[in-house]
Amino acid sequence: MACVLGLDIGTTTTIGILVRLPDTVLAIASRPVALRSDHAGWAEEDPRQWWGNVRDIVAELMAASGVAAADIAAVGTTGMLPAVVLLDDQGVLLRPSIQQSDGRCGAEVAELRREVDEAAFIAKAGNGINQQLVTAKLRWIERHEPEVFGRIATVFGSYDYINWRLTGERRVEQNWALEAGFIDLATHEIDDGLVALGHIPRAAVPPKARSHEIIGVVSAAAAAETGLGAGTPVVGGAADMIASALAAGIAAPGDVLLKFGGSVDVLVATEQARPDPRLYLDYHLVPGLFMPNGCMSTGGSALNWFVRTFAAGETGPAEKLGLSVHQHLDRLAEARPAGADGITILPYLLGEKTPIHDPAARGVIEGLTLSHDLGHLWRALLEAYAYAIAHHIEVLQDMGHRTETFLASDGGSHSRIWMQIVADVLQRPVQRLAGHPGSCIGAAWTAAIGVGLTTDWSGLSAFVRHAERLEPDPRHAEIYRKGYRRYRALYDRLAAVGGIPA
Predict the structure, then answer these.
(1) Rounded Cα gap, residues 268 and 403, in angstroms
(2) For residue 137, what are the domain limits?
């Protein structure tokens, strides 16, 4: 049977997967991505590296699986959003991408809030005025890089860029456009007035595509570079967290996906759009459903930073035990008590997105003493993200969303101690998923839907099974209840006195 190719343009890794329907993964390959943060709050990447990774990954997948180009029926892409990628009228990349986690545009967010009635904006666009908006990033470029701004002919996202490299077609997938702040929820179309807030011509935003819509075919040039067959259909693609949620089986109210990738995401499914400035609103991949969600600026990216910055000397001890440095640190953290002996960390190393939307927020370590060690710090960092998840759950419940079943996916969910900490903080079971390849599998499925290999959105769950279910430890309930209060109060206290500098 024909195969489909899924590509995930992630923050820390580019991943590709070859799938044969109904339920067989033929091969997976990945390449790392370099995230640059040259100034406080900045997050940039080189889209040319994404494309180079795609070329290498496709070659590796085909070699590993023995699949010929003619056997690949379609290509689907997914990726972080809404990254900002800019082209001029000749298709020249104008600058590195500005990532969704980038927090440089605080002044522009404040400017927009002065100009626009935020309540009316949220009701129309579905999302609030915050650092995630592409409009705010465009205004930053206009102010600080006018020579770049004046050459902008196309604004789109990470997987839109890869689709363009594959097909030559400039399109924007619907969730990129929605989170960018360009969609009118009443019409589900790109709105001229919303685009105009970014001070760019309407033509700079390409036509919108549904996730499973065929937008073009692999060009002869792209075929020569990648080894794919010229004429292979390419679909619009999907936001990474939405693709991952579908694979996890998040389709019923009350189901919550905790996605532990480069960022940490919290997602629920709903039949109604309930715009709220604290969280983001996206379309579910299943037509007719929505997916309110939270996305932190960091997650795995901050853990990787910690390893590079503080734990480089642990490589030798970890290798002697046959462990990665991350696994070694997990063992150290497991030997430290719940609450990390009084350390509280605010993991706002790139500012923070949901639910506080504060690009000026900064990372903080509070309560550090000479009695603490590397294991305490690692545990406190894992606990910080668990507290951040609890904050999101409070907001979802306040919005009227049920949060009953918690499933964990993606790379960070492989850390048993991290998932146990999350279960203990929430005092709810956390169901780990096994076999979940990540967002790339959702991308492959959109391709299969797009070319008619299947019509069953739920069929994607055949690739994922339930693994260990981590039960909360009631002995830690009070420790983490107090720890969560300290976590929330620390940010509020520092923000009130200006202790979290811009």
Answers:
(1) 8
(2) 3-238
Cis peptide preceding 22, ω within 30 of 0: yes
Quote the pTM value: 0.85
Q: Looking at per-residue confidence, does 205 or 35 come out higher?
A: 205
Q: Cis peptide leading into 355, omega within 30 of 0?
A: yes
Residue 502 binned pLDDT confidence (cut-offs 50, 70, 90)? very low
CA distance 371 to 76: 51
Domain count, the chain: 1
Please say whether the beta carbons of 235 and 213 come within 8 A. yes
**Exposed / middle / buried, residue 56 (Cβ in 10 Å: 0-12, 13-18, 19+):** middle
Residue 301 lies in a domain: no
Task: Quote the tokens at residue 113.
Answer: 């809030």
Structural domain includes residue 120? yes
Tokens of 96: 């590195």
Is 482 among the domain residues?
A: no
Q: Residue 250 above 60 pLDDT? A: yes
| Residues recorded for the chain | 502
Q: In angstroms, what CA-CA distances link 336 with 263, 341, 377, 417, 471?
A: 25, 8, 10, 11, 19
Q: Is 323 helix (H, G, I), strand (E, B) or coil?
A: coil
Does an H or E element contain 178, and which? helix 174-180
Q: How far is CA 460 from CA 15, 152, 212, 251, in A?
A: 18, 38, 14, 12
**Average pLDDT score over residue span 438-443:** 91
Asked whether 391 and 425 are in contact (CB, 8 A), the reply is no
Considering only the C-alpha atoms of the chain, give the largest distance between any 2 of them, rounded to a whole number of Å. Answer: 63
Phi, psi of 285 (to 5 degrees): -65, -30
Buried b (16+ CB within 10 A) or exposed e, 2-39: ebbbbbbbbbbbbbbbbbbbeeebbbbbbbebebebee
Contact at 8 Å (CB) between 341 and 335? no
Look at residue 28 and tell me if it is in a domain: yes
User: Any idea what the CATH number is for the domain that residue 193 is in?
Assistant: 3.30.420.40
* DSSP-derived 3-state class of residue 266: strand
Q: Could you tell me if 152 and 160 are in contact, meaning their C-beta atoms sit under 8 angstroms apart?
A: no
Q: Name the residue type at position 60.
A: E
Q: Which two tokens stand for residue 271?
A: 């039949």
**Cα–Cα distance for residue pair 134/176, rounded to 1 Å:** 9
Helices within 299-455 (DSSP H only): 300-310, 315-320, 325-334, 374-398, 416-426, 439-450
- Strands 72-79 and 238-239, how do they pair? parallel
Contact 6, 76 (CB under 8 A): yes
pLDDT digits (tens, 9 = 90+) for 391-420: 999 999 999 999 999 999 888 999 999 999
Kind plus residue range of the DSSP H or E element containing 52:
helix 47-65
Strand partners, 193: none
